[in-house]
Design brief:
mainly beta, ten-stranded mixed β-sheet, seven-stranded antiparallel β-sheet
Length: about 475
């Protein structure tokens, strides 16, 4: 639950971040049990569902340069090239364990294209940044791992007669571990390898970083670097890149600052598959700019070819962004205590009066309500880590406590499955059952300065209430 603080919700919709160290959620069912006469102390219990609730919080206010809570976070997404997206596929032939990197399916997606021909390429994946900028990155049939030609960002998911498997023939000398090492020899071009093992300068193991094109089995390939004498023999060529190669190519494209027009809105890294746990087959794409504006319904396979086939990589869209907002952001400890102390000593519930003023209509009426009564604390957002709501690849998802009340609530509506993301903003502070927060008011608060230092402890009692008048 990184950087998601407890927050008071004011009547004007702004939030107050609270550095809570101890949280107590107390419920008193208000039941009673009475012994019955002549019944051997048997007791009659009465439970009319008249529960009382109180939330107790302890914490410490400090200057923001000493301890800053509510640090903004950036939205991120995951594209998993080892698995297909089964959502809406309409096909019983694929399930969550179906691989994306299968030869015949990649051939269908690439639709018989000629290697390195980017004309009319239609296998785009759309990304949307926090400011609304759209980038479309194309999965292509290319001998280059990635490139930008002035109009098209591409990363290779297929090729022609690329090296899929090679057997080390000679370890050579003078080599060291490294990635994307060029090669030479054979009838093809652009094959690159990762040197994964070296012993006294001799290559002991390697992987194909990118398969290049137009090679043949049995050909001898030389690995560049060292003394130029490490070689391997091509034992298998093909069209489809592995999931790791696809993921690596996409990461390289997004992070390549040497492109003529770099992709500055996002960063990328290799991560395990959120579905299978397989290493380095998925890409986490992270917004560069923090905040909830980065949460959106992309990445999305944004072209007809993806929609005309059932085979597209599995995608988790952008989520997890949070803002460093709130009226207490950037304040000293004393500023925070003074602001909250003044508010709690004299603030009015907008209630019916505020509704009447707003009923007049117009922005001026809204400003009057917010200026006069906007600081009234109407509720609280309390985050917790949920495994039930966690998405693919996550252990937890931060969501908010909620307090369902009313005669229409039932077993399903009270389920933890209904908890909303901790970054969710309250859409209506006057709602009686908005899952984004718990409605109520502060009933008691105590602030204590410690030893003359710019540090204040607090004890705050909050009482949930569905209707406040």
């Amino acid at each position: 639950m990184t950087n998601v603080p407890v927050r008071f919700v004011r009547a004007d919709g702004q939030t107050i971040q609270l550095p809570v160290t101890t949280l107590t959620l107390d419920v008193d069912r208000g039941t009673m049990a009475m012994p019955l006469p002549f019944m051997g102390s048997s007791r009659l219990g009465v439970d009319l569902n008249l529960s009382k609730a109180v939330i107790l919080m302890e914490g410490v206010f400090t200057d923001d340069d000493l301890f800053n809570i509510g640090t903004p976070t950036a939205s991120s997404s995951i594209i998993d090239f080892s698995r297909v997206d089964t959502n809406g596929s309409g096909s019983s032939s694929i399930d969550e364990n179906t691989r994306f990197d299968i030869d015949q399916e990649i051939e269908i997606i690439l639709n018989g294209r000629t290697v390195d021909n980017l004309t009319g390429v239609n296998t785009g994946i759309k990304l949307k940044s926090t400011d609304g900028t759209i980038k479309i990155l194309y999965g292509t049939k290319s001998s280059e791992s990635h490139s930008y030609n002035g109009s098209i960002y591409q990363f290779s998911i297929g090729t022609t007669h690329g090296i899929q498997v090679g057997n080390l023939a000679a370890g050579g000398s003078g080599y060291s571990i490294g990635n994307n090492i060029a090669t030479s020899g054979g009838t093809g071009t652009n094959c690159k390898v990762n040197i994964t093992g070296v012993n006294s300068g001799a290559v002991t193991s390697f992987t194909i970083a990118h398969p290049g094109k137009n090679f043949g089995t049995g050909q001898t390939i030389t690995i560049s670097g060292g003394n130029g004498d490490a070689t391997f023999t091509v034992s298998q060529v093909g069209t489809t890149l592995t999931a790791t190669q696809m993921a690596t190519n996409l990461v390289s494209l997004i992070n390549d600052g040497a492109l003529s027009t770099p992709i500055n809105e996002f960063s990328a890294s290799l991560v395990p598959s959120p579905r299978s746990g397989e290493s380095d087959v998925a890409v986490r794409i992270t917004q560069i700019v923090t905040g909830t504006d980065g949460d959106n319904a992309t990445p999305v396979c944004d072209s007809a070819i993806w929609n005309n086939t059932y085979w597209k990589p599995h995608i988790n869209t952008f989520d997890g962004g949070s803002n460093a907002e709130g009226v207490f952001h950037g304040m000293s400890a004393g500023d925070k205590v003074m602001s909250l102390y003044a508010t709690l000593n004299n603030s009015n519930n907008p209630g019916i009066t505020g509704a009447l003023v707003r009923g007049v209509g117009g922005r001026i009426a809204d400003m009057v309500v917010d200026t006069k009564w906007g600081d009234y604390i109407m509720g609280i957002q309390i985050p917790f880590n949920s495994t039930v709501n966690a998405e693919d690849g996550q252990k937890y998802k931060p969501v908010n406590f909620f307090m369902p009340t009313g005669m229409f609530e039932h077993t399903g509506t009270k389920s933890v499955n209904n908890a909303v993301s901790a970054s969710t903003e309250v859409s209506n502070v006057h709602s009686n059952n908005d899952r984004a927060f718990i409605k109520g008011f502060v009933t008691k608060a105590t602030f204590v300065q410690i030893g003359g230092e710019p540090v204040y402890t607090f004890n705050i009692q909050f009482t949930p209430a569905s209707i406040i008048i």
